[in-house]
Amino acid sequence: MTESIYTCTEDFDVTPNVQADFDKNGYILVRSLLDQEEIKLLKDALESDEGLMRHAFCRDDGEGGKSRLVLWNQPGNDITGVMARCEKVAGTMEKLLGGEVYHYHTKLMMKEARTGGAFVWHQDYGYWYENGCIFPDMGTVFIALDQATQENGCLKVIPGSQRVGRIDHVRVGDQVGADVERVTEVRKFLPLAHVEMEPGDALFFHCNLLHRSEQNHSDHRRWAFLVAYNRASNNPVMEHHHPRYTPMSKVANSVIKTCATPVDPEEKDIWDPVACPSVSQLSLDKKIGK
């Protein structure tokens, strides 16, 4: 990766150059978005909270591996909610997407050492389109909690692939992935980039950017904290398992280090995929007659 890479400073902002890189490549990578103290606060809170972890579920990658994740719909006021609502995370995404955003969901993705599964090629909008989100005015902030390398299954992206538009998605194992034939054709025109990250680095990416990750065969886990946002103007036209427009109160970056609540599962509306299947899964099941 040689483009779209920046380092967070006190005066970091979405300049015309930053916006141009995001529009061209579908992402920007911001080194050290969270400093060492902030990333430690987040990791310690997540690692010590049993209430959140009891809601974790697994996804079969169709290749013999599994990854764990836990997903919640409301940010709340604990350390994870403050992270999702702070200016350098939510405020930056608002500028990149060109308008007010709200919290669509947050998830902790846990790719454990030696057993962590792969995630197939996909676009987030491949799922979110099915949720009644009419426009691809959506994006995700992927924050590395651990070092992410090619050895432990870092993200792979296809820069510029957001410009091909939404690709049809199909079932792959327990996952939903982009049509493999179309991805093969896209890769004839566009390059592949490995997103290697240090703890605290953050990838801001567009919902139509094609991305995937490989299994983790290394001795090092790869955990990541992801926050998804939707433009307020893109309020979904149907009720589904994620929120429709809910105003989000942003907070100053300084609040991260003063937040006294580690994790509060009670205020998060944690998603149970068994009790409330995703719309995209149900749609695919209907198409294949399950």
Summary, kept brief:
The chain is of the alpha+beta class and 290 residues long.
Structure keywords:
290 residues; Jelly Rolls; eight-stranded mixed beta sheet; Phytyl_CoA_dOase-like; globular; alpha+beta; 14 strands
Task: Explain how this protein is built.
Its cofactor is Fe cation. InterPro entries: Phytyl_CoA_dOase-like (IPR008775). With 290 residues, the chain is α+β, with helices and mostly antiparallel strands. The chain has a single domain (5-288), classed as q2cbj1_9rhob like domain (Jelly Rolls), CATH 2.60.120. It has helices at residues 16-25, 36-48, 50-53, 79-85, 87-97, 124-128, 180-187, 279-288; strands at residues 5-7, 27-31, 57-60, 66-72, 101-111, 119-122, 138-144, 155-157, 169-172, 175-178, 193-195, 202-206, 211-213, 222-231. The strands form three sheets. An eight-stranded mixed beta sheet has the order 1-2-12-7-14-5-4-3. Strands 6-13-8-11 form a four-stranded antiparallel beta sheet, with no helix packed on it. Strand 3 and strand 4 form a beta hairpin. It is globular.
